């Protein structure tokens, strides 16, 4: 029992922000802790952007070195997939992603890291380039937090041809704006938008397909995966939906003349 308590305490310490991780930095003021019920007190207006990714709690401190200060927050999400989801939603698409933890981005005044189920954010309070310091903090947190460093498997399912770089992201609810598609991954292609949505079982996925046909209206069957159909929608454009086991997938927003079955078949073939 003592060993278990020690392990639990060590895990909590590993995920807690600590200004002393980088020499010359010390904590200024008290530590902060927020849960879903009071997160709005800290980031009013943006709390929902965390909660939809199954936010659990946040621990934060403010670090100081001379006249420089950095806000250092560590958010725990329900699992690594949702931690990556908030990273993919908040990262800067114009900047490269670095391989620290699962993924990281470092700006002159901001650094973010996702490692296992934790999303780490550092923000500089001054107009000053502290990217080297931010990198040192993120590397230290990567070493400190145990757990997963591999990206979600679904990111590798989208074929690379004509895929917009770093466009794959987790949508935590209402994929394509359809409430029937509870959560899933979307990727942008030169010719449309691909998506993959997991369901609890093949039977559940089949039921969603029935509801999608009813929701969209006129559809045309397609020979693809376990079942598939083609359709057009006022808002989503030309569509191809398929079911592969417990996964739904396909393309939306396809232009006239674009073959829908071939790219959807390539996507379906990559889903295990």
Q: Can I get a quick summary?
A:
By secondary structure, the chain is an alpha+beta fold.
List low-confidence stretches.
Answer: 2-11
SS strand fraction? 25-35%
Main-sheet strand order equals 7-8-9-13-12-11-10
As a percent range, the share of helical residues equals 25-40%
Average pLDDT for all residues: 93
Number of strands: 13
User: Could you tell me how far the N terminus lies from the C terminus, measured between alpha carbons in angstroms?
Assistant: 40 Å
The figure for the number of domains is 2
The global form is: elongated
Characterize the biggest β-sheet: 7 strands, antiparallel
Radius of gyration: 21 Å
What structural category characterises the helix and strand content? alpha+beta
Number of helices: 6
What are the secondary-structure elements, in order, as H or E?
Answer: HEHEEHEEEHEEEHEEEEH
Fold blueprint:
Layout (H helix, E strand, L loop, with lengths): L1 H14 L10 E10 L11 H5 L3 E11 L2 E10 L2 H11 L12 E4 L3 E6 L2 E7 L6 H14 L24 E3 L12 E6 L2 E7 L3 H15 L2 E3 L5 E7 L3 E8 L2 E8 L6 H10 L2
Antiparallel strand pairs: 1-2, 2-3, 3-6, 4-5, 5-6, 7-8, 8-9, 9-13, 10-11, 11-12, 12-13
Descriptive notes:
The protein has 6 helices and 13 strands. It folds into 2 domains: 143 residues; 118 residues, 3-Layer(aba) Sandwich (Protein Transport Mog1p, Chain A), CATH 3.40.1000. The strands form 2 sheets. A 7-stranded antiparallel beta sheet has the order 7-8-9-13-12-11-10, sandwiched between helices. Strands 1-2-3-6-5-4 form a 6-stranded antiparallel beta sheet, with helices on both faces. With 272 residues, it is of the alpha+beta class. The N terminus is likely disordered.
């Amino acid at each position: 029992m003592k060993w278990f308590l020690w392990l639990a305490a060590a895990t909590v310490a590993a995920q807690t922000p600590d200004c002393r991780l980088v020499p010359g930095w010390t904590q200024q003021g008290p530590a902060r802790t927020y849960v879903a019920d009071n997160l709005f007190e800290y980031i009013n207006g943006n709390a929902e952007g965390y909660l939809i990714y199954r936010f659990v709690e946040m621990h934060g401190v403010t670090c100081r070195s001379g006249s420089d200060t950095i806000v250092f927050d560590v958010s725990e999400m329900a699992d690594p997939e949702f931690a990556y989801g908030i990273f993919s939603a908040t990262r800067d698409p114009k900047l490269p992603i670095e391989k620290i933890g699962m993924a990281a981005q470092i700006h002159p005044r901001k650094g973010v890291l996702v490692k296992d189920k934790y999303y780490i954010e550092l923000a500089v309070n001054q107009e000053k380039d502290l990217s080297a310091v931010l990198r040192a903090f993120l590397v230290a947190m990567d070493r400190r937090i145990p757990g997963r460093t591999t990206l979600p498997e679904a990111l590798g399912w989208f074929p690379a041809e004509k895929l917009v770089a770093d466009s794959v992201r987790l949508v935590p609810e209402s994929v394509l704006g359809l409430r029937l598609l509870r959560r899933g991954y979307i990727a942008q292609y030169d010719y449309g938008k691909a998506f993959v949505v997991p369901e609890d079982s093949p039977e559940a996925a089949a039921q969603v397909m029935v509801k999608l046909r009813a929701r969209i209206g006129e559809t045309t069957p397609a020979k693809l995966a376990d079942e598939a159909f083609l359709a057009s929608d006022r808002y989503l454009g030309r569509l191809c939906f398929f079911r592969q086991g417990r996964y739904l997938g396909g393309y939306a927003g396809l232009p006239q003349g674009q073959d829908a079955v071939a790219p959807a078949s390539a996507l379906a073939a990559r889903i295990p």
